[in-house]
Amino acid sequence: MLFPSISSATDTFNGSHSLPDGTTLVSKDGTFEMGFFSPSNNNPTTNRYLGIWYKSIPVRTVVWVANRQNPVKDNSSKLSISTQGKLVILSKNNTLVWSANTTEETKAQSLIVQLLDSGNLVVRDEKDSNPLNFLWESFDYPCDTFLPGMKIGWNLKKGLSWRLTAWKNWDDPSPGNFSWGMALGNTHELVMWKGSDEYYRSGPWNGVRFSGKNTPRYNLDFNSTLDEVYYTYRFVSNSFITRVVLNQSLYSRRRYNWIKENQTWSLYSKVPRDKCDNYNACGPYGNCNGDEPLQCECLMGFKPKSVQNYEALDSSQACVISEPWSCGAKDKDP
C-alpha cells in the first residue's frame, strides 16, 4: 500500500494520500494539530503515538491518542485509509499497528479524513452532501480528556460507551484503572471508578445540572432518548480554552482553563473536592464530617459495628442499628 504524503499544512487528506510521521494536520481555525509524537522528550523516537494536541499552546497538551496501547518504536509509521475504507496506522513493511473501529466499507478514494475545529477527528464520504455524516469520529472513542462538544454516556444504537480513562502515567498514555462515565439506571448518574469499584458519583440530574453548583461560564446539557443517553457541555465563548482531564496518580477529575496572559493552565475545579466527596467514604449509615483528617459518625439510631475499626477509619463494616426502632415514640424515631 503506497500513498503519497501531504506536503503542506491542511486539515484533511483523502484515500490517495497518507500522513507520515513528521507531518501534521491542523484544524481550519488553528486550534488543534494532529500527528505523531513521543511523550518522552528524552528519546523522541521511542514509543511514538498518533495524537491530537493544541496547536497554539507552547507546552504540548495532548487531548486524544489513537494507538495508546500499541506504540510504534521508531518514526516509520503513517496514518492512511485502507482499501477497505478504514483509518489505519502502518509501520515498517506496512505492518498494521492500529485500526479504527468501523464496520462500514467505502472506497478509500471517496473518503476524507478531517481534523475539525472542535478537536474531533472524523472520516466522511466526500461524495456525501451532508458534511456532518461521519463514518467514524474520534469523539466516539475518548481517552483521558473531555472537550466541549464531547459526550459522556452511551450510544445505545451503536453499543458505544463514551467513557474517559486516565493515562497510566505522564509518559504512558495506555489506559490506567481510573475511569469516568455514566451508570445507566433510573438516575443516569456520572460515576468515577477505580477499576470496577465506584469512587465518586455526581448525584442525579435535576433538569439543570447534576448535584453541585452550576457555572455560568459553560452550558450543561443532558439528553436521554431511545438511541442515546449522554451529558455534554459547551462554552458561551469559543475563544475560551478549557479541558477536563482524569489524573491517575491523584485519582482526580480536574478542569483546567488556559490563561493566555500567563501562558499557563490554571486549575479551575476538581472532584472529589475532599475525602468526604468520595463514594461511600464512611460506609452504610455513616456521616462524613471534615476531610483532614477524615471524621466519620454514625447516624442517629446507629452505632459502629466495630468501634476499633471505625476509629481507625475502616468503614468497611460501618454502622449497624443500635436499638430497636420505635416508630412514633418521642425522640426515638430513626
Automatic annotation (TrEMBL):
UniProt cross-references to SMART domains, sorted A to Z: B_lectin
Entry-linked PROSITE patterns: BULB_LECTIN
Record-linked InterPro entries: Bulb-type_lectin_dom, Bulb-type_lectin_dom_sf, S_locus_glycoprot_dom
Cleaved signal peptide residues: none
Keywords: Disulfide bond, Glycoprotein, Signal
Domain of life, per lineage: Eukaryota
GO annotation terms (biological process): recognition of pollen
Residue span, Bulb-type lectin domain: 10-136
Protein name: Bulb-type lectin domain-containing protein
Organism: Phaseolus coccineus
